Amino acid sequence: MLCALLLLLLMLLLGSLRLCWRLGLAALATGTQRLGRSRQVAQLLALLDTAVLRRTWGLLGESRTCRSLWDWLRRRRAPPWAAGGGQPGAGGAPAGSEEEMSRLLAMAEVPEEELNPFQVLGVEATASDAELKKAYRRLAVLVHPDKNHHPRAEAAFKVLRAAWDIVSSPERRKEYEMKRMAESELTKSMSEFLSRLQDDLKEAMNTMMCSKCQGKHKRFEMDRDPLSARYCAECGGLHPAEEGDFWAESSLLGLKITYFAMMDGKIYDITAGASCHSGVPSLSPALLEAPCTVGEGMVGLSIY
C-alpha cells in the first residue's frame, strides 16, 4: 500500500512537471512572437521541442511502473463486483461465484415451500449429512454478502439459507421428503391413468359394433397411402382408394382373404368385422370394376 501511494505521488509530480513544461513552452512561444524571434530564441525552442524529449515522455508513460499504477487506479475506482470483466459477482470473489450467483438468483422467486433444497445445494437427494454440509459451506463462501459484493448477494444467500434450514433439520427434512414422495406418487398415478385412458380411447376409436353378432370387432390402421392403397391382381398395380371404399385382397394362393376399408382418410384392416356379414365372403378379391362401399357391403357394421 505504501509503495502504491509513493508511485501515485511520483506520477502526480511527473504530470505536474509535464504540464508546467507545456505551459512554459507556450508562454515562451507567445513572448517570442511579441518581441521578435531571434536566432538564439529559435534554437532554444527547437531544442526544447526535440523528438528526444517527446520520446522520453512517451517511454515514461509506457513503462511497467506507470502501467501498473494506472491499472491499480482503475481497479480502485471501479465497483467491487465489476473488476472481473464488468460482470456482477466476479470482482473480489472466489472463482465460480458468478455462475453460482446466477443459479441461485434464478430460484429467488420460488416460494420457500416449493424450493428443492437438494437442487439449491447442487447435490443428489441421497446425499449424506457430511456432503450437504460441505456443499453449503462451499456455496456460502461464494455468495455470502460479506464475501461477495454483488448487489443481489443477499437474495442469493437467502435462497441458500432456506435450503440449508430444510436439510439441516431432521423434522423439516422428513416433512419435505414425505411431501415430495406424495407428489411423486400422485404424478405417477396421474401418468398411469392418462396412459390407460389414451389406450382405452384408442381402442374405442378402433372398435366397430356389429349388429349381426351383437359383438365388437377391431379395426387395424394400415400404413398405406390412400393414393396407392388398392392392389389389383389383374394388372399387378396399385390404385387409389376413396372414402368409404371396401375391398378384399387374397394371399397365400387365395387361402387367406383380407378385407380393407378407407375411413376418415385412412386405410384399415376390417377383416374381423367383415367376416360376420353375409355377402362379404363372396366379394371378389382385388377387383376394382365394381367397388363396394362400406355402407353397401357392411350393413349393420358401424364404428363404435
TrEMBL record:
Q: What GO annotations for molecular function exist for this entry?
A: dopamine receptor binding
Which keywords, in A-to-Z order, does the entry hold?
Signal
Q: Which Pfam families match?
A: DnaJ, Jiv90
**Where does the record locate the signal sequence feature?**
1-18
InterPro entries given for it?
Answer: DnaJ_domain, J_dom_sf, Jiv, Viral_replicn-host_int_reg
Domain (J): residue spans on this chain: 116-180
CDD domains tied to this protein: DnaJ
What protein name is recorded for this chain? J domain-containing protein
Q: Which organism is it from?
A: Limosa lapponica baueri
Task: Give the lineage.
Answer: Eukaryota, Metazoa, Chordata, Craniata, Vertebrata
